[in-house]
Amino acid sequence: MEKLEVESSSESLQRCASAQSIASDNTKTKATPVICRFRPESFDEIMHGGSPCVQFFPDNKQVAVDVDGQTHSFMFDRVLPPDCEQAEVSEIVAPPMIDAILNGFNAAIIAYGQTGSGKTYTMMGPPSSQGRGLLTSDPHRQGLIPRILDQLFRRLAERRREASLSDEGAGAATTTVIASYVEIYCEKIKDLLTPAKDNIQLRQDSKRGLWITDASQVPVSNTHEAMGVLDQGSSFRQVAQTKSNTDSSRSHAVFLLSLRNSFDSRVTHSQLYLVDLAGSEKVGKTGAEGLRLDEAKSINKSLLALGNVIMALTSKAKHIPYRDSKLTRLLENSFGGNSYTCVIVCCSPSRYNDRETLSSLRFGDRANRIQNKPRLNEEHSVDELKRLLQESHSQNRLLQVRLRESKALTRQQGLLIHELLSLLDRDSLKHYKNKYGDLLQHVNDQAHTLTQLPFNVKSCIFRWLDGRTILNCASINRDFTKTLRAESIWRAVLVNEVFGKQADESASAVKRASTVPNPKHFYIRHLKARLAAAPAKNLTAAVLPGGVYLAHH
């Protein structure tokens, strides 16, 4: 395996498949954990010359498969080699899902893979020798569903025992568990607990969400009763022999647990979907024909629809084709919905099925990128609703009192601000009137002084304070304006500071006064070059009111 092609996102490296990582995470969206399990090579694969084509790594999160000389590498939350035990699968998957449903969240565990890859063995365990549909009672070989049932009722018993020891009494915490068992066979939903119901429908509304109409609902109170329901339904599931599998599942089976948890005034609802999907088939290998061929077509079509849904979810498509299949419709909450979901990808390690294994791993990689948004399914009792209503009324009264206080304070502040503004306006008006009078007198004095200057020599006026003063004087004093025009000043240079600054820091203004109809429209231009070229002996200074003026001869 020389060439390595990584086909997973780097985010998978950061995920942990520990027992508490799913239920304890409080983020808004949840990634879908994927567990990849490999079974040992089968006798049929060995007879066809198969050899291992899969490489495992010490971190138990990476797997590489060699197909036609090219190695494809994937990262998952957990990779289980062929020698892993049934208990190890349960220890990884079961606890966080049980935590979720006991706390009022929906959850789903879905087994996916090619036909004969070990999905039913992983979910149910091997069949019992005592009769068709019965599951083994061997604790070492039991599948995931029997183990989940056992752990769930153990947890419920512990909760009741803890409640009985508390001051609130044994009736403080109650949990009702209802079991249903259906299969999707050739795009029809059949009730495995009542075989006569062979075409029941799916319904959805804003209050109840998605549910299966007319499906049998059996209350169960312990592991034995729940296992009886599971055995009863399994005996009616569609199973047939193919070249790839002696007990090939011909339908998608869904074992559904509905929980109603009541603790004090808090009531929650939750559902656990335990899904054993039928495996994808290559007709050339399975030898399916007749009815088996029709079943294979229906299975592959529904799995293709599931793949399209996952592809649309991971690519952020605007439309998710949930309605293309009964399977995708039933699993709508599990993929991209409000459920905690775990996918178990079952694979073969043999080169005889290397392409099917690669396809399954790619499916798991895409499913690993799906983000669900689990939502707490909580309802309030009458007493709790009354309490919340009383709290709302109390909060409303408190807010009304604060609103009245705020309005009174606002009125007081408004009066104070109005009074301050009135005083400020009177003082400001008086101040600016006095200042305007002083400035007007200053401008008139300056204009009068400038008109007395000798203009018999072509001259230019310079001021170091404000160049606009000359224009203001010209606009206010008409005699000054006439004088400027009569003298035909050829150029004027305004210097910011003649004394103490360099000449190149000053601004300049040049215009022929005789060509400008209104001196106040003089515009400023930069004349550093002309000022620098002017001989110093041609500059004379005159100290006048408001500034220093220079004459350029």
Q: Can you offer a commentary on this structure?
A:
The chain has helices at 43-47, 86-102, 119-123, 144-165, 223-234, 283-286, 291-314, 326-330, 354-367, 382-451, 468-476, 478-487, 528-533; strands at 4-6, 30-31, 34-38, 54-56, 62-67, 70-75, 78-80, 106-113, 173-185, 188-191, 202-205, 209-212, 218-220, 239-240, 248-249, 252-263, 266-276, 339-347, 371-372, 378-380, 539-544, 547-552. Strands 3, 7, 8, 9, 10, 13, 16, 17, 18 and 20 form a ten-stranded mixed beta sheet that branches. It has a four-stranded mixed beta sheet with strand order 1-6-5-4, covered by helices on one side. Strands 2-19 form a two-stranded antiparallel sheet. 37% of the residues lie in helices and 21% in strands. A hairpin with a 5-residue loop joins strand 4 (54-56) and strand 5 (62-67). Mean pLDDT is 76; it is low at 1-27, 454-477 and 480-553. Helix 10 packs across helix 11 (468-476). It is α+β, with helices and mostly antiparallel strands and 553 residues long. The longest helix is centred in the last third of the chain and has 70 residues, at 382-451.
Question: Which key features would you list for this structure?
Answer:
alpha+beta, 22 strands, single chain, disordered N terminus, 4-stranded mixed beta sheet, 553 residues
